[in-house]
């Protein structure tokens, strides 16, 4: 927003320091003058006695020196105030310089303001933290854009290849071609919808209401039960009422993604999935655990990145588009919750989502 030019903060502080010094000096001189007047008589003095100055003599002697002293204090106040203000505002100058660098896209710069903790140090530390988060988010968005472009290009390239094969061989069976095109197109649609859902969660553009995570967990489990049975897995759901505030549709999508991920990335046969909900004094917790391959801490740390699939996590007909846990993380953060992924010692993964409990007036 355009602004009219004005006085700098340093000049304002200088004038403030000098003004306060002049005011204090004037008051001090006034007190001295009033004190002297008590002991100096007014009117003519008897010349036959010892010399005693009257108030007129005192005024002629006091006023010039008081004026010189005020001028000296004014100069001292302006010069000293200017130097003192510059020293005090030096950290702010460094913060301003760092802000201008960040505005040009240089997010790797940090202030690293030293010294003991005060308002300027707190501001500098907060700014450094903000720059760190911005740098990480920008890097993540760049990786996301590159991965999304690659993922979207793959079905388009497959479709183009299939169409070229069909055009070069007009007599081939089109039923298999149509079936393959339908599968590729469905995956492209799923990927597009997942990207839109991820964007919606990141922007927090959704309504909030009272929801129960235990009911959502049951709904998601019932929806995915046929897929689990087809893969020879068992699902167990248990827990207490877990009231929270949020979007029912997004929390259902979050839970569905967690259960789907636990089913798809499981043992080839005889695996299990456990879905539990619990309530704490200030939070509600949804936990999804499954059997499966052993994962390291380093592998688990990357699973919430878009299009990341852990070790031995290959694409199948139900493997999704690689955004399942990324969507879970975005939905959790959009509800001001926390997401924790922990590899199990015997193989598999434990995912815990912690959200704020609904206020008492909304509970029930």
Automatic annotation (TrEMBL):
Listed Pfam families: HAMP, HATPase_c, HisKA
The keyword Phosphoprotein is annotated on this UniProt entry: yes
DNA repair is among the record's keywords: no
Catalysis: reaction(s): ATP + protein L-histidine = ADP + protein N-phospho-L-histidine
EC numbers on record: 2.7.13.3
Histidine kinase domain mapped to chain residues: 147-359
GO molecular-function terms, A-Z: kinase activity
Domain named HAMP: residues: 86-139
Keywords: Kinase, Membrane, Phosphoprotein, Transferase, Transmembrane, Transmembrane helix, Two-component regulatory system
Bilayer-spanning residue ranges: 20-41, 61-85
Places the protein is found: Cell membrane
Descriptive protein name: histidine kinase
